[in-house]
Sequence to fold (443 residues):
Amino acid sequence: MAGPQVPKNFRRVIVTASVGNVIEWYDFYIFGSLAAVLSVKFFEKSHPVAALLSTIALFTAGFLIRPLGAFLFGWMGDKVGRKYTFLLTLSGMGIGTGCIGLIPTFEEIGLTAAVLLFLLRMIQGLCLGGEYGGAITYVAEHVSDERRGYYTGWLQTSPTLGIVVALAVILGVRSYYGEQAFNAWAWRIPFLVSFLLVAIAIWIRLKLQETPIFQELKAKAQMTTNPWKEAFLSRNIKYVLIASIVVIGEGVVWYSGQFWALFFLQQVSKVDVFTSSYIVMAALLIATPTLILWGWISDHIGRKPVILGGFLLAAVTYYPLYSWLGTVTQPGKINYPIAILIIAILVNYVGMVYGPIGAFLAEYFPARIRYTSVSVPYHIGNGWGGGLVPFITSAAFAATGSLWYALAYPIAVPAVCFILGLLLMPETKHISIWEPSKNKAAA
Fold:
């Protein structure tokens, strides 16, 4: 691949990939956003705390299975192509999410309801495991080396915007039908909306072409014959492990700064669903551009200092920031501007660690096995490291009532990853993915 061959339509590619990802993350997060409702619909009601933790555990299980999806669909992405693989995962996600809105409740079919919910959550996790690494690879293989952080930063906004869309749909349905109808049956509507959203996303993505880099690999018969062997049974495994360490820290910061903020407001400060959702939505909308900003900054100063800076700030300031958030969100005397500001600061840390991560991963691995090599560490980090945040923090707080114990995991993991990152993480912004010989992991 001699020299950059960036296609002229790369901006449309970025927008299309991002829109699809927003819908995908909407699907994944309406489950978590409706955890309190799902807990009473699909589990025995006599122990409400146990039912809620069971639902959060199911939410977490969807994260834990994501590396398996990355493993399976990564192979397909490197063998069949980027485009068709993430079309398949997008379809599976839409079906899995929409069908949650069709399941009978515990009162109607007993334990079978929880089993069906679990199976559909597993489908969600598997499909997301194959989707996001594909989206990162797809966008990275359409843009220039000099601005990869900036353009993949746009893609990195999609999970945050997916949460915003999920919260907006839930609030809209709640407001329109009222609390009683929503708790009785209208909670199904946000799930059923997924059928329509995914159909639109598939229609949009069908118009996309395969990436130029994959097309050239295929034309020159340079595709891998066994992505798993090349990615995990060669010296590339060293790079997979290092990338996993970096992404574990990133994943914990992502979920601690965004998703647990919503749990904190609802479960710790006891703020009602509407108010807490509006506060988080406002903060997310204000701070989401930081993902693009820090991606752009990483094009100039490097991926490593930006990501490690986010780890350090998170580890040092989480406890004072969440303590402050608790004092300004007491029921009846909520300081809205300060609460929004605090969560916006937390999301800015997300921007630091998450904005450049797509560029880092794409640059770190060779094109032949990029889909597999990007997907697996990404979903180990986000699925296992980050996905455990809601369950560990919520369970720790429920057991102890202590904010310090609840935040021990979100503080310790970025701190450890900061130290390991200083020692192990390479700088990749100088690597040209259009010239594979310059790729460190391939050298």
